[in-house]
Amino acid sequence: APTLPEVSLTSDNPLDESLAKAAETATLTVRSEEPLHSLTLVRSDGSTKSLDPVGSAGTQWTLSKTIETGDNGPLEFRLRYTDLAGNSGEEVTSTTDGSQVTMDTTAPEISSVSIVSNNADTGYGKDADTVTLTFTTDEPVRVLVAADLEIEGLANLSVRSLNDGKTQWEVTGVVDEDLVEAPQSGGGGGSSTAAF
After folding, report:
1. Digit-coded pLDDT (tens) for 3-49
2. How confident is the model over 108-154, as pLDDT tens digits?
């Protein structure tokens, strides 16, 4: 009976090829030990889709899937195949190299947001005061850096994760009067104090 000694799964996600978000592509790559007559993916509804041969030897195959909004969780597959004599190989449902792709098309949500300053009234910040923003995400997020954030009125941003799970975050910055949009008032004048 034929065998599939190499089965791998990757995505074109630029940050992690084991993850895929909407509009990214996951690719299943297969090598058989001998030329195959057919190699098909069996879907959960029982329908099938043939893998695309690579070259003419009949031993290299590939199949790509564009991730769609609503696709979430591990990308699963079931492969059926026969050799040129019609012998069926054992169904394959996992990779040979441990690779996998998890689809994630749901944006993380932020909760438990708190913002305080080191001002005597912690609800306000004036020029040179330090402001601290803390928040929680409902799922782990990649490591955030200051360049990922823009908070009006604050300069010298720094970011750090408060837990190993990368779901609790703290951002600090310094109020810069040149970055604070002063409220308009009738006779001029204005304020460089921002309320949070």
Report:
1. 999 999 999 999 999 999 999 999 999 999 999 999 999 998 999 99
2. 999 999 999 999 999 988 999 999 999 999 999 988 888 888 888 89
CA-CA distance, 43 to 196, in Å (whole number)? 52
DSSP line for 79-110: EEEEETT-PBPPPB-S-SS----EE--S---E
Distances (CA, A) of 163 to 69, 74, 90, 111, 146: 29, 25, 44, 15, 18
The one-letter code for the residue type at 166 is: K
Nearest to 176 by CA among 191, 195, 156, 159: 156
Q: Tell me how crowded residue 47 is: count the other CB atoms within 10 A of its CB.
A: 9
Q: Residue 50: beta bridge partners?
A: 40
Contacts for 182 with CB less than 8 Å, ≥ 6 apart:
190, 191, 192
Over residues 73-95, mean pLDDT: 97
